[in-house]
Amino acid sequence: MKFYFMHLMPYADLDLSYSEKYNSAWITLPNSYYDPHKGAALYNRYMDELEYAEEVGFDGVCVNEHHSNAYGLMPIPGVIAGALARRTKRVKIAVLGRALPLLNNPLTVAEEYAMLDNITGGRLIAGFVRGIGAEYHSWGANPAESHERFHEAHDLIVQSWTRTGPFPFEGKHYHFNYVNLWPRIFQQPHPPIWIPSQGSRETIEWAAHASRRYTYLQTFSPVTALKKYMELYKEEAEKNGYTATPQQLGWSVPMYVGETDEQAYREAKPHIENMVNKFLRMPQEMLLPPGYSSVESMKGMLRAKKAIAASADGRTIDELIKSGIFLCGSAATVRDQIKHYQKEIGFGTIISLMQFGTLPHDLTLKSTRLYAEQVIPALRELGEPAGVAVA
Predict the structure, then answer these.
(1) Beta bridge partners of 95
(2) In Å, how far are 12, 80, 81, 204, 249 from 355, measured between CA atoms?
(3) What letter would DSSP give residue 328?
(4) Pairing, β 215-219 against β 249-258
(5) Per-residue confidence (pLDDT) for residue 298, from 0 to 100
(6) What is the pTM of this model?
(7) Whether 100 contacts 35, CB under 8 Å
């Protein structure tokens, strides 16, 4: 099994009383709530935490893209990935990912990723996402075109990496007379491509197609949803004539490791509840705007997200742990939880969100260290043997 350290870079200094006036920390929360001096300190603190992950033995670090919110301060994840490219030497750097349908020119991502791949000597993992519904409000993009633009942008990027230029590209949304990528991508034919999703059936079917076989990542969901969508990927793989490997299945989950179960619970409780009830707070029309997904996919995602959506009374740590959305406890407890879920579901990559909401620096480092020293080594042999690579 491979282990990755994920960071969202939330604005941890958010005035949590904002919810008395505003119904979301996304899109409509005035940016007057952001203090640039506090934000500057947070960026550098978070970079230290990502670099620490390499020091203690994680296989990779992950960054991602969100816009106009306090939940994640990485509107351009390539900036953070670029800094990590020179400050790290061993870990993979996964950009999970760039929201392709929002782009007027997808070749900017092809170029950005090619630069990162060259600077790191082939340590890049290329993540592509459609972006959650809130991003379409932020960018004024049409969610009904989401799938079309995503597929076309993906095709353009992969062709720019794998074909000798210059060549023309003529699509419905993107038109280029000259596609001629400089620099060329370092990894051949291209870096591993990962597809994070909330559980869109269309996305899973597309990722599992025999021509792609991309690693699929289920993000921040109850274990029941995780199992459902992992099984769907496996079923699609069988329909396409191959058997999905554990390395094609990834789970992204927040977790906290303490010295004991009681101490872990006590230390994590306010911060994971802040994440769910304050930082993730948004009305459903922001998360799933009309046209974003098919009716079938939307029903499934609504059922999955109901378990984490902030209610009037707020979600509790007990609910999150019970549903498997949050892993929390001593090293032995978290180790047993992951082992149980891995044997039941069969994922081969786990992406651990070690900092969440308002969790402070010292607790983030402590939990990260305990996880790296006492959990990861005991689980290495789960899943496929190391060295099995999936594009």
Answers:
(1) 63, 126
(2) 10, 16, 18, 27, 23
(3) E
(4) parallel
(5) 58
(6) 0.94
(7) no
